[in-house]
Amino acid sequence: SRVQRAWQNPFEADKLYLLKDDYTPGDYAFDPLKLSAGKDVEWLNDKKLKELNNGRVAMVAISGMIAQELVNGLNLIPADEVLEMGKADALVAMGAQCAGTVDEAACAKAFEAAERVATFAP
C-alpha cells in the first residue's frame, strides 16, 4: 500500500510520521506502460522536472484566466458548454454583436445573453 511504501513503521521509528529514507514523495512506481523502463536516472529526473514546470505554468495560466473573469466579467469556460450542447449559433451571434467593439463589458453581456439563449432554447 501507499502508506507502507512511503512511511516508516511507527513502532520501529524514533518519531511518528517519518518518511522512509529511500522514498521520493509522489513516487508510487506507477508506470503501467513501462515508459521509464531502461532509462537512466538523469533522464528520469529531467522528465520529472519538465513535468513539474509544465504543471506550474498550467497553474499560472488558469490563475490568469480566473483573474480575467473577475476583472472584466467575460466568462471563458461556459463557451465550451454552449458548444457541447450544439448551440454554436449563439456564439456566432455573440461574435457578430461584439465585432469591432472595444468594450469588453458589452461583449461579456452579449456572451451571457447568447449563453442564456443556447441553454434555454429547445
Taken in chain order, the helices and strands follow as HHHHH
Unreliable stretches: none
Find the count of extended strands (DSSP E, 2+ residues): 0
| Count of DSSP-assigned helices | 5
Q: Alpha-carbon distance between the termini?
A: 51 Å
Question: How helix-rich are the residues, as a percent range?
Answer: 55-70%
Largest sheet: none
Structural class: mainly alpha
- Strand fraction equals under 5%
Radius of gyration based on Cα positions: 25 Å
**How would you sum up the global shape?**
elongated
| Average pLDDT taken over every residue | 80
Which features does this protein show?
122 residues; 5 helices
Overall description:
Helices cover 59% and strands 0% of the residues. The chain is an all-alpha fold and 122 residues long. α4 packs antiparallel against α5. The termini are far apart.
Give a topology summary.
Layout: H1 2-6, H2 41-72, H3 78-84, H4 88-98, H5 104-120
Helix pairs in contact: 4-5
